[in-house]
Amino acid sequence: MIFLVIFQGCKEESFAIITNQGEDTISIVDLQNLNIIKTIQTNPGPLTVEILKNNLAIISNTKNESLQLIDLDSFKIIDTINLGFTPLGIVYVEGKDLLYISSWYENKLYYYNTNTWERDGVIPVGKTPSGIIYDKKRDQIIVSNRDENLLTIIQDNKVIKTIKVGDHPFGVYLSEDSVFSVNVYSNDVSKINLNTYDSSKFNVGDHPYNIISSDHYLFVTNTQDDSVSVINKDDFSILKTLKTGEVPENLGLDLLNNQLIVTNWGSNSISIFNLDTLKLKKEIPTGRESRSFGNFIWAK
């Protein structure tokens, strides 16, 4: 009986951290029971989520130029970091305890020490930096520059290369040795081999926004089609189109429960799909203008 109690106490669970930019809240969604367990009031304009170490998460608030730190054990905000610029994309480099933040209007990337929350430096990048990812294998930061149709590659906090992509790149994703850039205005995705820098493109739906990969498929949100394109990873053809809520933007994988989570900015909800059957399990109303750009799934 003692061993049974210990086992039950260690049960794994996963949660979605949903930023509701239109009402300045975060919805915490239990991904086992598919319901909201808590709503947290934030500073104005919560947008991006990133998971840190020690059961902490950070969110960017676009309307008052701040970050807020969330204790994921209690689901409470425990600190606010004032920035002095409008944060958009954020990515955490755990081995260095650094957080990189794209400054939407300044064409810069700032980086902060996550132990002290002091600013460590700044890197000039392209126009309107948006999505950011970290390539651990090469120790590089990759940034999409929306209004310049470029990706910027950074190593040792210096720009080492820029890569031309499609029109209006926003979401970026790393899969093995390739980076994918979602190009909103050209309705396609650029795929760049990071060893050779060879590039190709494949078509998706209308006004795509972000991308994520499972073992079997790539998934791309199409904001003006209210859909997700399911992409074959061998030939990059569209295998299937999933109907979502209105204006789907961002995606997360809940591997614990084998689910794809899609945030719907236009219908104030999230759509949850089974990753095997690709069928809709549930659409959950969240808050106004649900977005959650970045890494918003947390498992404990």
User: Helix tally?
Assistant: 1
Mean pLDDT: 95
Instruction: Estimate the global geometry from the Cα principal axes.
Output: globular
pLDDT < 50 stretches: 1-8
CATH homology superfamily name: YVTN repeat-like/Quinoprotein amine dehydrogenase
Report on the biggest sheet.
5 strands, mixed
Q: How many beta-strand elements?
A: 29
Strand content: over 45%
Which value, in Å, is the CA radius of gyration?
18 Å
Helical residue percent band: under 10%
Order of helices and strands: HEEEEEEEEEEEEEEEEEEEEEEEEEEEEE
Number of domains: 1
Main sheet strand line-up: 7-6-5-4-28
Structural class: mainly beta
CATH fold label? Methylamine Dehydrogenase, Chain H
CATH architectural label: 7 Propeller
CATH class division: Mainly Beta
Distance between the termini: 24 Å
